[in-house]
Amino acid sequence: MTTLSSSRADTRQRAQPDPHDFLDLDASLSDDERLIRDTVRQLVRRDLLDRIPAAYSAGHLPEGFPATAGELGLLGMHLSGYGCAETSAVAYGLACLELEAGDSGLRSFVSVQGSLAMFAIRSYGSEAQKQRWLPEMARGTAIGCFGLTEPDSGSDPSSMITTARFEDGEWLLNGAKMWITNGSIADIAVVWAKTSDGVRGFLVPRGTAGFTTRDVANKMSLRASTTSELLFQDCRLPADAVLPEAVGLRGPLSCLNEARFGIVWGAAGAARACFEAALDYAGTRTQFGRPIAGFQLTQQKLVSMATQVNNSLLLALHLGRLKDAGRLHPHQVSFGKRHNVAAALEVAREARTILGANGITGEYPVMRHMANLESVLTYEGTGEIHTLVVGQALTGLGAFH
């Protein structure tokens, strides 16, 4: 009885849960993971948040962000060698979480640079290609992009029409890629094309004859990011431009799986930012003589949002631990991407209702996150495609056709 009484006393004396970390996920992180998270969080909140609305309106990344990300070791941070930080998957995920809590454009840049372009070169490139590009890309002094999606080939990359033909000791590249993050600012493009041997990857430096870019205009989403079309017209590449270790769609799809892992975390960051904005607003906005946080319907919305945010964070952390243990399956990444992006959209829309008319202005981050998440919902695998990926894993039956 004495032990039970003491236990109850300890419970009564325990502090209330932190509204910003309700399930105390912080306790599940290592000291190194917390340090990386806090460093990126400080960067976003101290140096970027005030500049993001203007960058979003202007349609580009905040000035100097690529170099800053390189200086902090965020670019290719989960890769090994060649100047990369070789952090854990969870640490990389936490960085993505904090970046997207600022804006999806920040996380998209880091994802494309590290998990698409750098990962492709690190996994499938020659030693000469790795030595030439990876150290500069890790420092942020060279920017990469990843060309897989085409104007008429999105969810079905096998239907791509971009081709590469080997003749007279050179590759001749023809076709177009669409919706390419970093396209017009990239120093090196990783481009996937059909060849007589199957789909192959090629490194195409900026300024190569026959290679041009054109930015996508009038975007209403993901504006703090450069999105481009890549055009290839008789673009001649040397024989060693091909990634030697990638043949078939396995190569580009493995890169996409790396980037989707970051989205699982990033979407949770966007959701958290919307929840925190709504929680703060509800505590200060007064109607009918008291803060709106004291009304039952507002509390119901806040609890619903907090549940979605914490569930998404738990899922991201679990998948990160699986990845660090070498046990993460691509189908589980699809599960995480599908759930966390949908949950983030629900949180953003609920948060907007708490902010009322203020929720549609640039003074608060909610509408910006909501618009960005519409892009995150459909890039690197639409919600429908990830539903079918998980459905196939559950039933053993493919339903893509």
Automatic annotation (TrEMBL):
Q: What is the main EC category here?
A: oxidoreductase
Can the keyword Oxidoreductase be found in this entry's annotation?
yes
Q: Residue ranges under compositional bias (Basic and acidic residues)?
A: 9-23
Give every Acyl-CoA oxidase/dehydrogenase middle domain span. Answer: 145-235
Q: Which cofactor does it need?
A: FAD
Q: Mind listing the UniProt keywords for this protein, alphabetically?
A: FAD, Flavoprotein, Oxidoreductase, Transit peptide
Q: Which residues form the Acyl-CoA dehydrogenase/oxidase C-terminal domain?
A: 248-394
Q: Which reaction does it catalyse?
A: glutaryl-CoA + oxidized [electron-transfer flavoprotein] + 2 H(+) = (2E)-butenoyl-CoA + reduced [electron-transfer flavoprotein] + CO2
InterPro entries xref list: Acyl-CoA_DH_CS, Acyl-CoA_Oxase/DH_mid-dom, Acyl-CoA_Oxase/DH_mid-dom_sf, AcylCo_DH-like_C, AcylCo_DH/oxidase_C, AcylCoA_DH/ox_N, AcylCoA_DH/ox_N_sf, AcylCoA_DH/oxidase_NM_dom_sf
**EC nos:** 1.3.8.6
Concerning Gene3D superfamilies, the annotation shows: Acyl-CoA dehydrogenase/oxidase, N-terminal domain, Butyryl-CoA Dehydrogenase, subunit A, domain 2, Butyryl-CoA Dehydrogenase, subunit A, domain 3
- Write out the similarity annotation: Belongs to the acyl-CoA dehydrogenase family.
Please report the name of this protein according to its UniProt entry: glutaryl-CoA dehydrogenase (ETF)
